[in-house]
Amino acid sequence: MEIEDAIKKAKKNDQIAFNFLLDTFWNDVYAFQLKRTQNENDAEDITIQTFSKAFDKINTYNEDYKFKTWLITISKNIHIDLVRKQKKTIKNTSKDSEDNYFDIVDDSPTPEDRIITEQNLAKLLRDIKKLKPHYQKVINLRYFQELSYKEISEELKEPINNVKVKLLRAKKLLAAIITKT
């Protein structure tokens, strides 16, 4: 799939296109944030927020610019906002009331989903324990407690798009662990 095609399909809410864009640009955005923050967890959180915001606002993307540049700009702005919030140390409720998001859910099982369901439960649990704790938690909430995205969002006190991106990333990392062993 070409990037331009993926962007057009993503604007039509195509889950496969979102996955392709995430896979294609994750390392670029993460590396950019790792240089800025010098912290793996912060870089990962900001990268998740970047893709969440980008997928939410994909229809505002202007094809005159490179998609990677657009993502990096979003990422940079998120980091700047976080630094400002940390400096203020005043607890402001963020834009949680903003319910304008796109469902980027594909109900058909992905290859990662099929791998998860086919594995022996004991081995699967050992593999899940190899993930970072926040990925373990989102996998547990979604697949073992069978919570909806909205319920997970409320449980983690995070926007629903962050939950979706975090779960997508957790599934990809888990699939990589499973296929290695």
UniProtKB/TrEMBL annotation:
<dbReference type="InterPro" id="IPR013325">
    <property type="entry name" value="RNA_pol_sigma_r2"/>
</dbReference>
<dbReference type="InterPro" id="IPR007627">
    <property type="entry name" value="RNA_pol_sigma70_r2"/>
</dbReference>
<dbReference type="InterPro" id="IPR039425">
    <property type="entry name" value="RNA_pol_sigma-70-like"/>
</dbReference>
<dbReference type="GO" id="GO:0003677">
    <property type="term" value="F:DNA binding"/>
</dbReference>
<protein>
    <submittedName>
        <fullName>Sigma-70 family RNA polymerase sigma factor</fullName>
    </submittedName>
</protein>
<dbReference type="GO" id="GO:0006352">
    <property type="term" value="P:DNA-templated transcription initiation"/>
</dbReference>
<dbReference type="InterPro" id="IPR013249">
    <property type="entry name" value="RNA_pol_sigma70_r4_t2"/>
</dbReference>
<keyword id="KW-0805">Transcription regulation</keyword>
<dbReference type="Pfam" id="PF04542">
    <property type="entry name" value="Sigma70_r2"/>
</dbReference>
<dbReference type="InterPro" id="IPR036388">
    <property type="entry name" value="WH-like_DNA-bd_sf"/>
</dbReference>
<comment type="similarity">
    <text>Belongs to the sigma-70 factor family. ECF subfamily.</text>
</comment>
<keyword id="KW-0731">Sigma factor</keyword>
<keyword id="KW-0804">Transcription</keyword>
<dbReference type="InterPro" id="IPR014284">
    <property type="entry name" value="RNA_pol_sigma-70_dom"/>
</dbReference>
<feature type="domain" description="RNA polymerase sigma factor 70 region 4 type 2">
    <location>
        <begin position="125"/>
        <end position="174"/>
    </location>
</feature>
<feature type="domain" description="RNA polymerase sigma-70 region 2">
    <location>
        <begin position="27"/>
        <end position="88"/>
    </location>
</feature>
<dbReference type="GO" id="GO:0016987">
    <property type="term" value="F:sigma factor activity"/>
</dbReference>
<dbReference type="Pfam" id="PF08281">
    <property type="entry name" value="Sigma70_r4_2"/>
</dbReference>
<dbReference type="InterPro" id="IPR013324">
    <property type="entry name" value="RNA_pol_sigma_r3/r4-like"/>
</dbReference>
